[in-house]
Amino acid sequence: MKASKGRNVVVVGTQWGDEGKGKLVDWLTETADGVVRFQGGHNAGHTLVISGVKTALHLIPSGIMRPGVKCYIGNGVVLSVSKLLEEIAGLEKAGVEVKSRLRISEACPLILPFHVALDVAREVAREQGIGEKIGTTGRGIGPAYEDKIARRALRVQDLKYPERFATKLADLLDLHNHVLTSYLKTESLALGESLAKYVKNGQVMFDAVYSEAMAQAEILRPMMADVSRELNEAHANGANLLFEGAQGTLLDVDHGTYPFVTSSNCVAGNASAGAGVGPGMLHYVLGITKAYCTRVGGGPFPTELDWQQPGTPGYHMSTVGAEKGVTTGRSRRCGWFDAALLKRSAQVNGLSGLCITKLDVLDGLTELQLCTGYRLDGEAVDLLPMGADDISRCVPIYEVLPGWTESTVGVTNYDQLPVNAKRYLERIERVVGVPIAMVSTSPDRDHTIVLQQPFSA
Ligand code: GDP
Ligand code: IMO
Ligand code: MG
Description:
- By secondary structure, the protein is α/β, with parallel strands linked by helices.
- Helix content is 29%, strand content 19%.
- The strands form five sheets. Strands 9-6-5-2-10-1-11-15-19-20 form a ten-stranded mixed sheet, sandwiched between helices.
- The longest helix is centred in the middle third of the chain and has 22 residues, at 162-183.
- The protein starts with 7 loop residues before the first strand and ends in a 7-residue tail after the last strand.
């Protein structure tokens, strides 16, 4: 299928993240000129497998493995410069040219060591009884977004002006060190190895943060850009752009299982605000959807199975699907496909098409259960309710479908899928009400079935 020019596609996760966005973004980049991250930070972990070689990306858009494709980090991303430079160095070591192709918005808020300290210390406090632990990635994401919304964040552009940077940093440390020591009692907490060089007596030290940031500023400077302007110009020149979502719709700060969510909007609409392009520039929204469900961290998960008991479907998903987080290495919780959750996702994203991933993981299960709705306080509901409290009371209503014994690994033609795999996919399509555009049958870039190429739809 040939793609047309001047088309822009948004890729979003439709569940709780780790749906396989990285693989699909990399695949789609064959027909894209630029890939844009618009939210989140290095809490993301996107895996690309190209001819058997695995690459994990956290901040750099998943277009970087295609020579010539430009990569953009939009204003909606919270940026740890240290982690970005580490990731660039890793890719360069593997022979991938990054710096000439990466453009970073000057408006990105920075993630600094005190954000990480706050994130870690708050999770400890929650564990000790002040609220319930969220199970964050401990990367400082939430505290960095808080500073942005409170209008006091240090942004990429501040790195160009040492005095301005120093003044704002001193003010921020004044506030955050007070919270760290007086409220979170960090003097007696182990905040972890990675923070050791910045922290003394529970406080983050100005000099350590400032001198590191100033050294990094020089490396970052040539990549700093007005990303909004560059994207609008690329579009005017007929470029195909791909907007790469991180996390997933149920982790969205408004539409997800609040408060067990991340601190950004992960839905497709935020591609516009988080990159600085008008919503009319977004032509197609592809929802990446695992053929079952997984979740890392805390929070309700109506179709969750026992995934630790050998011999059970949940254990099958966990082991065959190798369900371990790319960022933190934590095991992902596993459960049946939830079509009522997907309907919520389709609604808040305006999905044009679905890409079902990891179909191959279900090979060999004798029967599959598909959640089509719930009983909530005795009443039947067909759409995931809003927020963790109601969601945690949902009892799933399942439809049972037959499984298949044949292997689907590596299948690239829809007609070659087992009859029962097609029945499963077609049932999902019907209940969710969104057409299936693509199906993924292994981690490898090439093992992808295309029914509708999003760039030419
Ligand atoms: P992302 O965060 O959405 O990019 O997804 P992750 O990379 O965190 O997790 C998805 C995992 O599933 C990765 O290990 C991928 O290599 C793998 N994966 C992606 N698509 C498929 C597929 O169709 N089949 C199998 N077996 N694995 C897949
Ligand atoms: P990708 O892009 C899965 C989860 C964390 C935690 C919650 C809040 O790879 O799909 P945060 O550190 O963001 O404040 O943590 O969100 N989380 C993810 N889960 N995939 C991700 O990204 C995630 N990014 C954050 O586990 O439950
Ligand atoms: Mg991931």
